Each structure stands twice: as structure tokens, then as C-alpha cells.
């Protein structure tokens, strides 16, 4: 539990690595979180707007995405704010250029029915699974701190979402803090103890976001501008009519196929996050977001998850491509 989140190997790899942008297209890492932009992804809207072939690679966790980005295999990746904080603290040459969601009820701590966990203090001695280096890992630790429960007295297990679902089915774990599609599986015979919406109110907000390698960003500003415009457009569609967007069977089916969630789960989870407009994001990706990353990094260091923190996290955040898209 006290090991550093990112290996220093990532940094040496990052310094030597190039990026995947050649005649065979751009490789982009995405995850299984439910959000409206999955519809644009399924429709091929990003390819149409950028004029580039995109090789979409699915990953299970932000830690795996960071590894791929650090190695140079992937120039653009979808991660959460906790893995971002850890990667930035290690000096990985990346920037956040777009937020895909302010996380709410789409990530939750679920405890098994019959586990004997009825209140936070009951977590002591129980097996709680979470993917390390994830937003749910950060939220779990923040929740335990809020509840004044010693994290060292909780048996926290590092499992990927698919492993969590399998361990839950076998009865090997008492609870899990996770996202879809594993979240829906554990909810089937469990109850929500808290969600990231509540943890955010306790002072530990989390975000889903896109990062880009700085070398790729410097050489491909037009690609990133168009990528942002597509995302902003589908967010605008959703925000104008959330119920209508979620009621559209075609939209729901496309998101379900990309995430592995059931269609009925997609309809319930879409309202679980907030999807800020590009205008909101232009302001957010300045001092507010930098402060959130800084606060997350300081918390991770206090928990022994990173060795040190940066004096300034603003180099790891940019609204350049959002502002270009707005113009």
C-alpha cells in the first residue's frame, strides 16, 4: 500500500520515447467510463474532423494508460485526476488539455450484502478492492480520512476492474470502489456506502480528462483543436437535453458497446457526472484545476503514494486547444 504509484522507469522511458503519429494513424487510449463523447467516438466523428486515422485502444485503468503514454506507444490518453497527479509529480512530459467529466455517482464504494458493513467503521479488517493509481483509489483514501478510519486497518487490494468483478463473483472481497462496467456488477448484490459525488463535497473532487504528450501537442495543434471541438459539440448536445440524449437508444447502444456496460446502466450513469462546456473548461483549466491537481498530489504524498510533489503544476495543464476551438 505504501509503494510509489509510478515507477521512475516511466520517466526514463518518456524522455527517450517518440509518439505514435505516422502514416498508420494516431493511437489513442480510452477507458470504459460512461460519457457522451463515446457516441462521437463510435460515429467516427473524431476521424472525420481531424482527417486522421485513429487507432482506439481500450485500457482498464489510468495506471495502464500512463504506462503506455510514458513509453511513447500512445500520445493521447484518457485518465483520471489522481493518475494525472501521480504522473505529473514524477515529471512525465504531459498536459491535460480537456476534461471529460466532473465525477459524481458514476464511481462508488459498494459493499457486499451480508458482509457486515453497515457503516464506515465496519470497513476495518475487511477486503476492499480498488484499482491503484485511479480516481477511485484516491476517493477511497479521502473517504477513509473523512470518516477517520485508519486506511492501514482496511485490507485494500489492488485489482483491475475486470478482476474486481471476478473476485466479487467468487465472494473473495467485501467491497469495491470502482466504475462501470464492474460497478453495475457489484451493485447487483451490494449497496453503495458512498460515491465520488459525496467525496467531492468533502473536499476531494475528481475528474476524468484527456492528456497529451507535450512533444505530440507541439507538432499537432490542429489535431488537438479538432479533437476538442468534437468533444465540446457532443457535450453541448447532451447538456441541452440530457434526458433526450439518454433516451435515444442509438446513443445508449453505442456507449454500451464501447464501455461494456448494459444499456440500462448507461442511461442511469450518464447523469452521474457533469460534462462542462468548452467555455467552462477554458476557465476550469487554469487555477481551479491546477489547484485540484496540486491538492491531490499533496494528499497522495501524505499517504506515501508519491515520493515528492512539484512546486507548480500549471505546466501540466493547458487550455490552449480549448481556446483555439472556441475561436
UniProtKB/TrEMBL annotation:
<dbReference type="InterPro" id="IPR001638">
    <property type="entry name" value="Solute-binding_3/MltF_N"/>
</dbReference>
<keyword id="KW-0732">Signal</keyword>
<comment type="similarity">
    <text>Belongs to the bacterial solute-binding protein SsuA/TauA family.</text>
</comment>
<dbReference type="InterPro" id="IPR010068">
    <property type="entry name" value="Peri-bd_TauA"/>
</dbReference>
<protein>
    <submittedName>
        <fullName>Taurine ABC transporter substrate-binding protein</fullName>
    </submittedName>
</protein>
<dbReference type="InterPro" id="IPR015168">
    <property type="entry name" value="SsuA/THI5"/>
</dbReference>
<dbReference type="Pfam" id="PF09084">
    <property type="entry name" value="NMT1"/>
</dbReference>
<feature type="signal peptide">
    <location>
        <begin position="1"/>
        <end position="22"/>
    </location>
</feature>
<feature type="domain" description="Solute-binding protein family 3/N-terminal">
    <location>
        <begin position="25"/>
        <end position="242"/>
    </location>
</feature>
Amino acid at each position: 500500500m505504501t509503494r510509489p504509484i509510478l515507477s521512475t522507469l516511466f520517466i526514463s522511458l518518456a524522455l527517450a520515447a517518440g509518439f505514435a503519429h505516422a502514416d498508420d494513424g494516431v493511437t489513442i487510449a480510452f477507458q470504459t467510463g460512461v460519457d457522451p463523447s463515446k457516441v462521437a467516438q463510435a460515429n467516427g466523428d473524431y476521424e472525420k474532423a481531424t482527417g486522421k486515422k485513429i487507432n482506439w485502444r481500450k485500457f482498464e485503468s489510468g495506471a495502464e494508460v500512463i504506462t503506455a503514454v510514458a513509453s511513447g506507444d500512445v500520445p493521447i490518453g484518457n485518465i483520471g485526476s489522481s493518475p494525472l497527479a501521480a504522473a505529473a509529480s514524477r515529471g512525465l512530459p504531459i498536459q491535460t488539455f480537456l476534461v471529460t467529466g466532473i465525477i459524481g455517482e458514476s464511481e462508488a464504494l459498494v459493499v457486499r450484502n451480508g458482509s457486515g458493513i453497515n457503516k464506515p467503521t465496519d470497513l476495518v479488517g475487511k477486503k476492499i478492492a480498488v484499482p491503484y493509481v485511479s480516481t477511485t483509489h484516491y476517493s477511497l483514501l479521502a473517504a477513509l480520512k473523512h470518516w477517520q478510519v485508519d486506511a492501514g486497518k482496511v485490507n485494500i487490494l489492488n485489482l483491475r476492474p475486470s478482476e474486481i468483478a471476478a473476485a466479487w463473483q467468487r465472494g473473495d472481497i467485501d467491497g469495491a470502489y470502482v466504475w462501470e462496467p464492474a460497478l453495475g456488477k457489484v451493485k447487483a448484490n451490494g449497496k453503495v456506502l458512498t460515491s465520488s459525488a459525496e467525496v467531492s463535497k468533502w473536499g476531494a473532487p475528481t475528474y476524468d480528462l484527456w492528456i497529451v504528450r507535450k512533444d505530440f501537442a507541439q507538432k499537432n495543434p490542429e489535431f488537438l483543436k479538432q479533437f476538442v471541438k468534437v468533444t465540446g459539440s457532443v457535450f453541448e448536445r447532451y447538456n441541452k437535453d440530457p434526458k433526450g440524449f439518454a433516451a435515444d437508444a442509438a446513443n445508449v447502444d453505442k456507449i454500451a458497446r464501447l464501455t461494456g456496460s448494459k444499456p440500462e446502466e448507461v442511461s442511469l450513469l450518464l447523469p452521474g457526472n457533469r460534462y462542462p462546456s468548452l467555455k467552462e473548461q477554458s476557465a476550469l483549466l487554469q487555477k481551479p484545476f491546477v489547484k485540484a491537481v496540486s491538492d491531490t498530489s499533496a494528499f497522495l504524498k501524505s499517504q506515501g503514494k508519491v515520493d515528492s510533489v512539484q512546486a507548480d503544476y500549471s505546466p501540466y495543464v493547458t487550455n490552449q486547444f480549448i481556446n483555439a476551438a472556441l475561436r
